[in-house]
Fold this sequence. Notes:
This protein is α/β, with parallel strands linked by helices. The protein has helices at residues 41-48, 71-76, 93-103, 108-121, 138-151, 168-185, 196-202, 221-224; strands spanning 2-10, 16-25, 30-34, 56-61, 64-65, 78-81, 156-160, 188-192, 205-210, 213-218.
Amino acid sequence: MITFTDVTKRYPGGTFAAHNVTFTVPAGSTTALVGPSGAGKTTLLRMVNRMVDPDSGTITVNGRNIHDSDPVRLRRSIGYVLQEGGLLPHRNVLDNVALVAKLGGASTKESKERALHHLGLVGIEGAMVRRYPHQLSGGQQQRVGVARALVGGADVLLMDEPFGAVDPMIRRDLQSETRRLQRDLGKTVLLVTHDIDEAFVLADQIIVLRQGGVVAQQGSPAELLGQ
Ligand code: ADP
Ligand code: ADP
């Protein structure tokens, strides 16, 4: 579970990036943050792994106040999926994923096995695991990025515009696969997207932000449409 309570953040000289933001991402469910560019979506997401700290308010992850957590340990306990996968260009696919398992303390052999297992979950198999990121399509890179976020065993995932760079033709497939994976694995997911359709496909709860404030918060996509 992730909770935000009265979270406020103002960058030096700027307007509010977050203004008294309060919401909960229940365990095992997905919440999407949507809103126009500059609304504060990325700032809220980055607060969860302490890449940005709030000026005031409290954030908890699985019951713990994150400000009592060491940022490095905190980041290892949270999977982070970036646009375009965020893969290391000079490592092959298998190494990109295995490296994260290794950072979490697994042996070389175990890291490799876990990497292969998680790559299999997202449909990256066979000779493809020896390729380098530039030898993959945007969609395939994004799959590897998801495997990498999962391999550490984190039950909390942050996804920043995860499919923004993916060919629209396959984005839908990737979204439904991600949705199924979220359900099967029971992850707690906070997702940033400016694609409202994506939020509808992926999220159990949608939070609409504008100028750092929550303007609408709905338990289900249907509620958001007033259905
Ligand atoms: P990305 O989201 O592609 O990783 P950045 O990390 O550079 O991009 O920035 C995240 C967001 O913060 C963007 O919306 C960007 O416009 C904004 N931003 C970053 N640095 C500044 C700054 N110094 N002043 C104003 N806005 C900034
Ligand atoms: P979004 O992800 O919804 O596009 P951001 O969280 O990136 O929004 O930005 C929210 C506001 O904070 C914007 O006005 C942006 O310019 C500002 N901002 C973001 N990052 C920085 C930064 N590092 N320094 C100054 N202002 C920033």
